[in-house]
Amino acid sequence: MPMAYQPIENYGIIGDLHSVALVGMDGSIDWLCLPHFDSPSVFAAILDDEKGGRFKIAPVSEDVTRKQFYWPDTNILITRFFSPDGVGQITDYMPIHMPENDHGRHQLVRRVDVVRGDMNFRMECSPAFNYARDEHGTEITESGVFFRSAQLSLDLTTQVPLKQRDGGVFAEFALREEQSAVFVLGEIDPVAAHGVAFLRSEEELFMQTVDYWRHWLSKCTYMGRWREMVHRSALMLKLLTYEPTGAIVAAPTTSLPEGKGGEPNWVIR
């Protein structure tokens, strides 16, 4: 069976000024390195569709059309699905600045909503740590699942019941209009017995992230005819900025080698 790869233009991008994730129009996160831009990968299906690892949420039906756009004046990404039975969407973002919770800088939030009708979804989260070279353990809990590898441990928190398959988990769930399901992937202490307690609701995380990006963008003084394009370009450049140093990475896929078996093509110093 041939491997299926999306064109690079089919990916949107989210981030927290420490790392970024690439989100495909099919609802699949195919690239994520944690905790930093140049860290080893967690999801890398963009490199290997079979072994690279992904975090995919998508309608079960194949009779859908797709669209991606950003929440106005932010780097919060919306992936919308249109079907004869309804309209659903995924809201993807990485929260920024949670001083009361060190792990908050390295969370990825995926909220699934149905805005009209009803829709059946399938979720698959299959990490492949360190470019699929590191083994990991998978432990389903009452609040989600732990993924533990030698160098990095994550938990996926959700109220949706999960089932394990190989080293990953999956779920199928149905939503009606105005219903939602939330999945929060976050870094945890590798020896922790329990996942990180979230001190804020998802709604608060969302509004905090909206406020951050809009406050930052409000400092832009350009008011010309290309204002929307200038704002989007500025938001993208900020997204590619490594907060501790202010350096801008060359590309979202900073850790990809230029050739097979080569060294990373960009390392943050």
Question: Would you write up a description of this structure?
Answer:
The protein is mainly beta. It has one domain (8-248): putative glycoside hydrolase family protein from bacillus halodurans (Beta-galactosidase, Chain A, domain 5). The protein is 12% helix and 41% strand. It is built from 3 helices and 17 strands. The protein has helices spanning 129-132, 202-217, 227-239; strands at 11-15, 20-24, 28-33, 41-43, 54-59, 65-70, 77-83, 86-93, 107-126, 136-141, 144-149, 153-158, 163-165, 168-176, 180-188, 241-242, 247-248. The strands form 2 sheets. The protein has a 15-stranded antiparallel sheet that branches. Strands 16-17 form a two-stranded antiparallel sheet. The longest helix has 16 residues, at 202-217. The N and C termini lie far apart (41 Å). Mean pLDDT is 88; it is low at 100-104 and 195-199.
Give the arrangement of secondary structure elements.
Blueprint: E1 11-15, E2 20-24, E3 28-33, E4 41-43, E5 54-59, E6 65-70, E7 77-83, E8 86-93, E9 107-126, H1 129-132, E10 136-141, E11 144-149, E12 153-158, E13 163-165, E14 168-176, E15 180-188, H2 202-217, H3 227-239, E16 241-242, E17 247-248
Précis, in short:
The protein is 12% helix and 41% strand. It has helices at residues 129-132, 202-217, 227-239, and strands at residues 11-15, 20-24, 28-33, 41-43, 54-59, 65-70, 77-83, 86-93, 107-126, 136-141, 144-149, 153-158, 163-165, 168-176, 180-188, 241-242, 247-248.
